[in-house]
Amino acid sequence: MKRLKRALKNAFFRMLGKDPEAVVVHFWSGDAALAHRMSAELLDLLPTVRHFIVSGTGYAIPKLPEATVIRLRPGSAWSLYRQLRRQLKTYRIGMSAVLFTPDTAFTPLRRAAYLLTPRKLLAYNARLERHHLRFESWIASGLFLRGVPLDRIHLRPKWLWPFKHDRSVASSKLQVFEGRPMDAARPKVAVVSPYFPYPLSHGGAVRIYNLLREAARDFDIYLLAFAEHDRMEDIAPVLEFCAKVALFNMPRYREPRWSTLLPPEVCEFRSTLVERTLEDWKREHSIDIVQVEYTPLAPYGGHVLVEHDVTFDLYQQVREKQRTLSSRWDYWRWRGFETRAVRRFPRVVFMSDKDAAQLPHPGATVIANGVDIERFTPRPEPASPRLLFIGSFRHFPNIVAYRFLVEQVWPLLKNRFPSLEMSIVAGPDYQRHWREHTGTFDAPQDARITLAGFVRDVRPWYADATLVAVPTLVSAGTNVKVLEAMAMERAVISTPSGCAGIALVHGESVWIGATAEEFAAGIARLLDDAPLRRRIASNALRIARECYDWRALGAAQRRLWKETLSSRLALRPATVADLEIIARLQDRAKEASHWEPARYLDYDATVAVDGGAMVGFLAARRTANDETEILNLAVAPEFRRRGVATRLLLECFQRLPGTFFLEVRASNSAAQALYAGLGFAPAGKRPRYYDNPVEDAVVMRRESC
């Protein structure tokens, strides 16, 4: 039967004057490199079929022995169609593969392909995704031709549920890791993050890792984070300072970007599993503070929101540049969501004063980005000139910056500096992020440009660079890569937005260029003028050491958490009903003075209450019109390092202005450090002042302010 069908088929097509075997026609109607990839794929998929490659004259086609090349004279779509009909009249066309890219110069050739085989078109886009163009699926075909990624063409909003087949999938996998031993005396903080902060592959991970490491000196940290991969090989460094880590698989969000009132980035991180785990940990471990990293995770709620950037500011910049309906929609959604989100949190952390001014909040705190001064140290400049750009492509402003640098700035430099080379560190999965954001298959490159993905240690890349470029056209927050370059004593050439929020001055500690011409001229100036370049780098190094050391910024993070804890305290005068608890607190504080509790009521005595429980007290007496002596200060051990003592002292300073005196055991260095931080200084010593055990007392004095 098969032989009979084949014989009849051959006879039929011979009667029509055509070869009975179908052929494939490749239309090279776009970038030659993409077209070559398209043809190579088809030749590999269909090795036994005859292939024809169609292009215009003057179009360079690499040798493909398996295919026959057809050159067409320039003309209209109808003219090209008639040329094709003449050259292919004896062949039966089984499929036409056509490359569709934004380049409109090839539109006539694409139209000619449609006229030739209207029902047999296999369209390729700039990502080299393929889709059969059919009239019966005209919506999907139209979206594909407009550049919508193939995996999003058939997405439907959830409010069109009868027509929705590709549904979102929630997080379902939880991995819990035990870290360092917990300490009942340390307050407990839960931190919710959109990603695990290791390896240090982008600025957000660098910030979270370093600040949590520094804050862990005084706090037990419970980290809840989404994991991008099932295998977490680099978890050990974080477990060194976290008490517990929970990792969740990313939800699979399958909604069109335009279809929700909330920004899609917010919807992508919704997870009932994270919500349940956070609530369980809050009950099980008596979590004191919940800190949320990044605005998209604000719906989880808590006490502190960290605004790594003011996102609506970023989308406002995009809107001003693109002026499209989608950019306006994105800006409107982010502006509304972000403004509402910050109001839900008592404290909000911003990266710079500029960011804080854009979202006024009564509990605003600025904790800038920083750099590990001990890890990033100055290195000698390389012998050959090299430009470096570090920017993970997972963050789309870095893709915009890369295109600006390679497509607009580099052509102005490459001929003037024939020995100049450039290195790009684009982060993990940079090809995937590039295709998702640009709709093209490959990032533009050059023989003198090295494009790398994830690198475990960026320090050798800074060491090999003469200049560090930060060509960011749209940006929010502050760039960690600028701070790392400063600490490595490398001069930075930046756009205005690239170094915004960092205390740098053009021509003194950074070179700024807004346009491609200014940026290229700045690079040329710094390459030609070595003394200027080194002076800028030296000034930037000094600023990095003075202002952006993670150790100082970590102290600010700890101070913020202690203030957040102390803000929950209620202070009131002591009463007779408090004496029994005061006695117990005094007995538990072995290093404190031990008075008869009833005597405190003869002086100025204040108690601190948290959640209805007394957690500390302070007793003072006025010894002169402007002089006060602190008689005793005690805090329950489980509530120490939460700002209780600081709050009691500050309240006393405000009520009883003037000079203060106190005694503290010579061995109690922690208390002495606390008092020194509040303005006390040693003023003398009282030998054998304390009993049980006998010990000297250090007298400390705080002058009237």
Give a short overview.
With 705 residues, this protein is an alpha/beta fold. Helix content is 35%, strand content 23%.
Beta-strand portion reads 15-25%
**What is the strand tally?**
27
The biggest beta sheet, please? 8 strands, mixed
Structural class computed from helices and strand pairing = alpha/beta
Q: Please, how many domains?
A: 4
What is the general shape? elongated
Question: What is the helix content?
Answer: 25-40%
Question: Strand order of the main beta sheet, please?
Answer: 7-10-9-8-11-12-13-14
**CATH top level assignment of the largest domain:** Alpha Beta
Radius of gyration: 34 Å
Number of helices: 22
Task: List segments where confidence is low: pLDDT < 50 over at least 5 consecutive residues.
Answer: none
**CATH architectural name of the largest domain:** 3-Layer(aba) Sandwich
Summary keywords:
alpha/beta; 22 helices; 8-stranded mixed β-sheet; Rossmann fold; about 35% helix; 27 strands; 7-stranded mixed β-sheet; about 700 residues
Topology (SSEs and partners):
Elements: H1 2-15, E1 19-27, H2 32-45, E2 50-56, E3 67-72, H3 77-87, E4 91-99, H4 107-116, E5 121-124, E6 130-133, H5 138-145, E7 174-178, E8 188-193, H6 203-215, E9 220-227, H7 236-239, E10 244-249, H8 264-268, H9 272-284, E11 289-293, E12 304-307, H10 311-322, H11 325-343, E13 347-350, H12 353-358, E14 364-366, E15 386-390, H13 396-409, E16 421-425, H14 430-438, E17 449-452, H15 459-463, E18 467-470, H16 480-487, E19 491-494, E20 511-512, H17 516-528, H18 530-547, H19 550-566, E21 570-573, H20 579-588, E22 604-610, E23 613-624, E24 627-635, H21 644-655, E25 659-665, H22 669-677, E26 681-690, E27 695-702
Parallel strand pairs: 1-2, 1-4, 2-3, 4-5, 8-9, 8-11, 9-10, 11-12, 12-13, 13-14, 15-16, 15-18, 16-17, 18-19, 19-20, 24-25
Antiparallel strand pairs: 5-6, 7-10, 21-22, 22-23, 23-24, 25-27, 26-27
Helix pairs in contact: 3-4, 6-19, 10-11, 13-17, 16-18
